[in-house]
């Protein structure tokens, strides 16, 4: 019997207010919902023979607890920290614990918005940052993570 290689799923984390996608400021974030984001991530991962595990919370501590639980169980983390991007050292510190690639995603181009959105506590520890691609940024992040881990599949 041939040895099988276990490939852990990619964790997709969404922070505060992302549960309101589709209704909150559609002129900035578009009309797609969080369910649409998760479905897109699942389809993209499936093209590479991979799976995703999705989690959203409006609570910083819940996100940190989920990151802690990810250690040893995921191959990468795709995260849209929402407003915590600009404020949370605790979230940044938690993200290094799983010791996996991190891709920071933002639906809007945060650098073309208010000055306070230009700083990220996450970017310095991220393997890659995607901003301004709408929800397609998630697909790009998932594909990138799959390629990092050597998953075959379509691009």
Task: Output the keywords.
155 residues, alpha/beta, five-stranded parallel beta sheet
Give an overview in words.
This protein has helices spanning 26-29, 34-47, 60-70, 89-95, 136-148, and strands at residues 10-14, 52-56, 76-80, 102-106, 128-131. By secondary structure, the chain is α/β, with parallel strands linked by helices. Strand 3 (76-80), helix 4 and strand 4 form a beta-alpha-beta unit. Helix 2 (34-47) runs parallel beside helix 5 (136-148) and helix 3 packs parallel to helix 4. The longest helix has 14 residues, at 34-47. The chain is globular, with a radius of gyration of 15 Å. It starts with 9 loop residues before the first strand and ends in a 7-residue tail after the last helix.
